[in-house]
Amino acid sequence: LDPYLQTYNRILALQSIGHNVEKIELIILGGTWSFYEESYKIWFVKRCFDAMNDFNVKDNRNNLDTSEECTWKELEEVQIKNETAYCRNVGLVFETRPDWISESEVKMLRRLGATKIQIGIQSLDNKILKANRRGHLVKETKRAFELLRIAGFKIHAHWMPNLYLSNVKKDKKDYMKIWRKDFRPDELKIYPTSLLPNTELEDLFNDKKYIPYTEDELNDVLKFCMIHTPRYCRLTRIVRDIPSGEILEGNRKSNMRQIVEEEIRKEGLKLNDIRSREIRDKNVTMNDLEEEIIKYSTSVSTEYFISYKTKLDDKICSFLRLSIPKKRDNFINELSNSSIIREVHVYGQVVGIGKRDPGKSQHLGLGKEMINTAENISKRNGFKFISVISAIGTRKYYEKLGFKKQELYMKKELQN
Questions:
Q1: What is the pLDDT of residue 350?
Q2: How many CB atoms lie within 10 A of CB 31?
Q3: Are 34 and 96 in contact (CB under 8 A)?
Q4: Which of 78, 99, 125, 294 could form a Cys-Cys staple with 305, CB 3.0–4.6 A?
Q5: Which helix (H) or strand (E) holds 49?
Q6: CB-hemisphere CA count at 13 Å for 301?
Q7: What are residue 289's DSSP bridge partners?
Q8: Going by C-beta distance under 8 Å and a sequence separation of 6 or more, which residues neighbour residue 126?
Q9: CA 131, CA 326: separation in Å to the nearest integer?
Q10: Rounded distance, CA 301 to CA 322, Å?
Q11: What percent of the chain has a predicted confidence (pLDDT) above 70?
């Protein structure tokens, strides 16, 4: 389908059920994005931006173009237009594989406007990766995390328990590897392996070489994972939503997350991941909140997870991810001697651009407060500049805070 129509119709559908569509996070999923030809990728993204730019504009008929041809200059022109469009892009996400991540690929992703990358790590056990014919090893995953983090991207990993040759004990051990300094993703999807027809896994199952988890075994693994997920990570999804009729054996319940969460709470245990603590639509004032700063190390940086949370019930209202690189030079020249804001997010009901709504956490000034904290941390660490991996539609916001557009990032000189 034409990316223009996909994007436009999705925005229209969201608006028709009452969503504010002035701020759009665009997620392009389905396979390995990096595999496609450069010209096709430029055209595809350009058409998505055309749709966002045309939405709420009366005369948009001239944009039904399926030529699949586009230049970098044409893409840049529609990106600039989106800076002031009604539907502004506040995040652009692509899905790819660790073994496709290179310095040149990272630069291209950024030039397209990407701010977050989803990568399937599946396992951190080389034996299991080989047995499941994944096509990459742990070293490629490690390198991908390094390059993406150095470039300021948010990293959204996919991990799969119950792969061939794994078991409950191995999966728990593997999950804890995710939180070693070589990895530590910002977001995570947990996709337990599903046994589907006409696959090699079905052959292994028929030969009694592969056994899907029972519900109790899966429950045990998911409970372990959810309890051991750190506060700086968001568990975006648990269990892939595959029609139950297509699954031969194993879990067919799409609400396993809800089932496990209820068990965890009945046992009096606490969930700390971001999604479990989101404030959602609750009204708050600054007096209700307190700042929390979590510091952790990766192989290439020191990370600061700066957030505002409610004092009484630990609900998270906003957060900022600040990366302090261990090396001052960077394969992306404009990031040399610069700290990097990798994400700024404020929770609560979406408030329209330029509007105010008392009590909504989106307009308490939390973003500005967290950026001030990030600037102070950067100065204490001796950095001359602070950069942000801004989405196209948030450039004007950062301009108001003193950031200036460079080739790929927004950048600000720090004053002593």
A1: 47
A2: 10
A3: yes
A4: 294
A5: helix 38-54
A6: 29
A7: 310
A8: 137, 138
A9: 35
A10: 10
A11: 94
d(CA 154, CA 25): 13
Q: What number of other Cβ atoms are within 10 A of residue 406's Cβ?
A: 15
Structure tokens at 89: 């892009």
Angle of helix 38-54 relative to helix 3-16, nearest 10 degrees?
A: 30
- Average of per-residue pLDDT across 179-198: 96
Written as six digits, the tokens of 152 are 């300021």
The neighbour count for residue 94, using CB atoms within 10 Å, is 23
Gap between the Cα atoms of 142 and 119, Å rounded: 12
For residues 240 and 218, the answer to whether their CB atoms sit within 8 Å is: no
In the numeric block, the tokens 């061939």 are attached to: 164
Closest CA to 132 of 145, 120, 122: 122
Q: Residue 171 phi/psi, 5° resolution?
A: -65, -40
Q: Which of 182, 168, 286, 295 is nearest to 230 (CA)?
A: 295
The span from the CA of 287 to the CA of 339, in Å, is 30
Average pLDDT rounded to a whole number, residues 94-99 = 96
Mean pLDDT across the stretch 349-358?
A: 53
Instruction: Tokens for 105, please give them.
Output: 């690929």
**To which residue do tokens 């070489």 refer?**
209
Helix (H, G, I), strand (E, B) or coil at 121: strand
